[in-house]
């Protein structure tokens, strides 16, 4: 790894990975998220809160604005030093249940020589009998921390215990939370002042390569950034990723509803849609250069194009469909490091590309509506914000191909209650294809009754059990979920 890349990740690195002298102090980089471990152990516990994609989350890789909200669900990673040069990781559901077999591996197998770290292809051999994806994610994060030089030139022995307050199959970013918690705990333990954005890219790489779940950097970056109950996080990922807090108006809350099911092929569907959007980016770049549209400022990010510019200059020149082989033959790969073009697949380029352009416009207007609603008592901004969520939900299914029968039913039931009952808007969250629906609502008894009514009707019609995901409380403390 180049010296430039190392300097992007951290400010200072100790000569070897060991805990800071005495009881480790908590790094100011992660205020409130990392605490000394209670009791006699000289360890740390880091908490990474799950998140809900409120609007724009799928468009972060195209430079779009993504708004998310931290939930009460979270992952805690406890790290305790060892003196035997072994790495031990286990995932604990509660005080009595272990999720899969614990994994123990010598440091020498993870880092066989200075500068050489195993990759995800060797992960199965290292995991031994552990079948926990959370353990695998933590191990992958350690490997990527070593690969980027964040943990110095030698890894010392360490025990990691991962505890969760929710089912990691719920689409709220459990793997990203494990990666973020692992990175926060280890860098704080050795007193490394790591760059938050660089760590987010590292965690994103760990989740993608070791778990096989694509994730936008905004997802991890929001988990590594300070957050409070009752506020959204605005994240835009371009040359310099930014994260800013956006308080919700008084009397307004956001909740998630896990619809109880998700299509098994959601990753395949997401990757196909993402590849098609990158195809659109390649074609737009070709058009701009061929036609010498020097006045169009987009910096290579599709979401920087206005809806008007897209329609006037590009929409009719993008193919509605193209075979993977035909695209490869003419243009080669898309340049996306997370996906590859399947020669036998058919990609819907136009609709998948324009989703990101319109979604960014919706996300920006949604943020403006939230700001306006916080400054006045007029309900119109919140009603408009809700309509933008419904429009985003439609685009998820119709433009981007990530819809599902169950989430469509749940959103439709929410919309029937409407703003008069305190339900402003609802949309599918995350990867779509089922999963979680996020709801913008008033914090009143009437709105809670409306939410309960929609959920009850959904359960009766679908036969699925739901789970409400609250976002307006801090939840239990890190000590509640740490395991010594």
Structure description:
The protein is α+β, with helices and mostly antiparallel strands and 484 residues long. The protein has three domains: 245 residues, Ribosomal Protein S5, domain 2 (2-Layer Sandwich); 86 residues, 2-Layer Sandwich (Alpha-Beta Plaits), CATH 3.30.70; 132 residues, Up-down Bundle (de novo design (two linked rop proteins)), CATH 1.20.1440. 40% of the residues lie in helices and 20% in strands. It is built from 15 helices and 14 strands. Strands 1, 2, 3, 4, 5, 6, 7 and 8 form an eight-stranded mixed sheet that branches. A four-stranded antiparallel sheet has the order 12-13-9-14. β7 and β8 form a beta hairpin. α4 packs across α5, α6 packs across α7 and α11 runs antiparallel to α12. The longest helix is centred in the last third of the chain and has 27 residues. The N terminus and C terminus are likely disordered.
Keywords for this entry:
484 residues, alpha+beta, four-stranded antiparallel beta sheet, disordered N terminus, globular, eight-stranded mixed beta sheet, Ribosomal Protein S5, domain 2, disordered C terminus, Alpha-Beta Plaits, 15 helices
